[in-house]
Amino acid sequence: MGKVAPTRFEKEKKLKLITAETPFYGESGGQIGDIGTLETARGDVVAILDAQKPQPSLIVHRGRVVRGAVQVGDRVRLVIDAPRRNATRLKSFCHPYLACSVTRGVGTARYARRDRS
């Protein structure tokens, strides 16, 4: 017989979960995935440690139960770590421009040294 997947996760248990909708960005295209929390109406909390995007329309949240217990079918609220997302977005946006300017700057400095001698 095959394994039966658990339907309830207690405190400190690690889990991977999929929700019908999510505000989380899944790791894709070199950008890291969001982190944050999942909360139930009962006050249970799961720390979302990573979000992966294994397929274009699928986000898998990897987390650990930090308070209470969660089970299949719970209605949940997902909250991203907004400061981290903004920092990641800024870094992802600026990186190509920074790389380009550094490359051009190094090239300019090298040519400037040649002109002086």
Determine and state the CATH class of the largest domain: Mainly Beta
Shape: globular
Helix residue percentage = 25-40%
Sheet with the most strands: spatial strand order? 2-5-4-3-7
- The CATH architecture of the largest domain would be Beta Barrel
Q: What is the mean predicted local confidence, pLDDT?
A: 81
Strand content: 25-35%
How many runs of DSSP E, i.e. beta strands? Answer: 7
User: What is the domain total for the residues?
Assistant: 2
Give a brief rundown of this model.
The chain is α+β, with helices and mostly antiparallel strands. 30% of the residues lie in helices and 33% in strands.
Detailed description of the structure:
The protein has one helix at 82-116, and strands at 8-9, 14-17, 36-40, 45-55, 58-67, 70-71, 76-80. It is an alpha+beta fold and 117 residues long. The chain has two domains: 8-80, Beta Barrel (Elongation Factor Tu (Ef-tu), domain 3); 81-117. It starts with 7 loop residues before the first strand and ends with a helix. The strands form two sheets. Strands 2-5-4-3-7 form a five-stranded antiparallel beta sheet, with no helix packed on it. It has a two-stranded antiparallel ribbon with strand order 1-6. The protein contains one helix and seven strands, in the order βββββββα. The protein is 30% helix and 33% strand. Strand 4 and strand 5 form a beta hairpin.
Q: What is the strand and helix layout of this fold?
A:
Blueprint (H helix, E strand, L loop, with lengths): L7 E2 L4 E4 L18 E5 L4 E11 L2 E10 L2 E2 L4 E5 L1 H35 L1
Antiparallel strand pairs: 1-6, 2-5, 3-4, 3-7, 4-5
